[in-house]
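> forwarded from #structure-qc
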C-alpha cells in the first residue's frame, strides 16, 4: 500500500470529516487508508482542528478508547454568521418582494441552496449542545430549511401535513388557530414518522403570531416528545405571540405597502450563548 504525503492526507481527511458532520470516524480508518501511524494521524487532525477553529468552520472532537475516533462538529463564528444575515436582510429588504395584501415573496430564498447551506450551519451552531433526535417542520416552505439543518446535525426530518394523506398511514391530528386570520387549521403527523419520547427541534421559515408552531408543539405532546428548540428564519411583528421561546435569524419590523419599503433587522439569535464565539 502506497503511503500518502502529508499534504494529500490533510486534504482528504478534511474532505471526509466535513462530509460527515457528527459522525465518529475511527483513527484506524485513517491509519489504514493512508498507511500511516496513528501518531501521525493525530498530528494531522490537530492541524485540521486548528485551521477549522481559526477560520470559524467548526471543531474536531476526539473520543478516546478502543471504540474511539474523531468527529467534525460544525460551528459558525459570529463574524461569519453576521455576514450571512446581512445578506439575508439585504435581500429581504427588496421592495419588489411586496405582494398584494402585504405578503412577501420568499420562495427564491428558500430555493437558494448556498444560502440554505449557510443557514443550516448557523442553526447547527445555535443548537450544537442539544441532544436532537429529529427535526420537525410543516409543509411546504419549511422543508428546504429543515433538511439544510438536518445535513449538519445528521438527524432525520419529519414533516407535518395540513391535510391527511393515505400514503402517511395512521396519523395523529390536532387543531390549531392561525395567529393572523384566527382560522382553525388541522395539523397531522404520521404515527410511524416519530418515536415516542423523541427530542425534537422545530424549524420553520416564517412566523407572525406563531399559531402553526404552537400547533406543532401540541402535536408533539401527543407523542410525549420533548421540544428542545424552535428556530425561525424570519420573524414578523404580532400583537401577541403564541410561542414563548424561539430563536429568530432576522426580524421584519415593518412592511410599508404605500411607500414600498421593508424594514429588516437581525433577530434574537445574537443574544444566544451558542453564538458568542470570538469573531475571527
Amino acid at each position: 500500500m502506497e503511503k500518502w504525503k502529508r499534504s494529500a492526507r490533510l486534504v482528504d481527511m478534511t474532505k471526509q470529516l466535513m462530509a460527515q458532520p457528527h459522525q465518529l470516524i475511527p483513527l484506524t480508518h485513517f491509519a489504514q487508508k493512508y498507511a500511516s501511524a496513528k501518531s501521525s494521524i493525530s498530528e494531522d487532525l490537530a492541524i485540521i482542528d486548528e485551521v477549522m477553529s481559526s477560520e470559524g468552520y467548526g471543531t474536531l472532537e476526539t473520543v478516546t478508547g478502543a471504540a474511539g475516533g474523531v468527529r467534525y462538529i460544525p460551528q459558525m463564528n459570529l463574524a461569519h454568521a453576521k455576514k450571512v444575515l446581512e445578506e439575508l436582510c439585504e435581500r429581504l429588504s427588496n421592495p419588489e418582494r411586496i405582494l398584494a395584501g402585504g405578503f412577501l415573496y420568499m420562495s427564491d430564498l428558500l430555493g437558494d441552496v448556498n444560502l440554505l447551506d449557510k443557514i443550516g450551519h448557523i442553526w447547527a451552531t445555535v443548537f450544537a449542545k442539544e441532544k436532537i433526535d429529529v427535526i420537525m417542520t410543516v409543509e411546504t416552505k419549511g422543508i428546504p430549511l429543515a433538511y439544510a439543518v438536518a445535513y449538519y446535525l445528521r438527524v432525520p426530518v419529519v414533516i407535518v401535513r395540513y391535510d391527511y394523506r393515505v400514503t402517511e398511514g395512521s396519523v395523529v391530528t390536532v387543531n390549531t388557530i392561525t395567529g393572523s386570520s384566527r382560522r382553525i387549521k388541522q395539523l397531522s403527523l404520521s404515527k410511524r414518522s416519530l418515536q415516542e419520547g423523541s427530542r425534537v427541534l422545530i424549524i420553520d421559515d416564517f412566523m407572525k403570531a406563531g399559531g402553526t408552531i404552537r400547533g406543532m408543539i401540541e402535536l408533539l405532546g401527543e407523542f410525549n416528545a420533548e421540544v428542545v428548540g424552535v428556530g425561525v428564519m424570519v420573524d414578523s411583528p404580532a400583537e401577541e405571540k403564541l410561542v414563548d421561546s424561539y430563536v429568530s435569524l432576522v426580524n421584519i419590523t415593518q412592511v410599508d405597502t404605500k411607500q414600498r419599503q421593508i424594514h429588516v433587522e437581525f433577530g434574537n439569535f445574537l443574544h444566544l450563548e451558542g453564538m458568542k464565539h470570538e469573531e475571527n
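QC bot note: Residues 276-280 have pLDDT under 50 and may be disordered. The first helix runs from residue 6 to 19.
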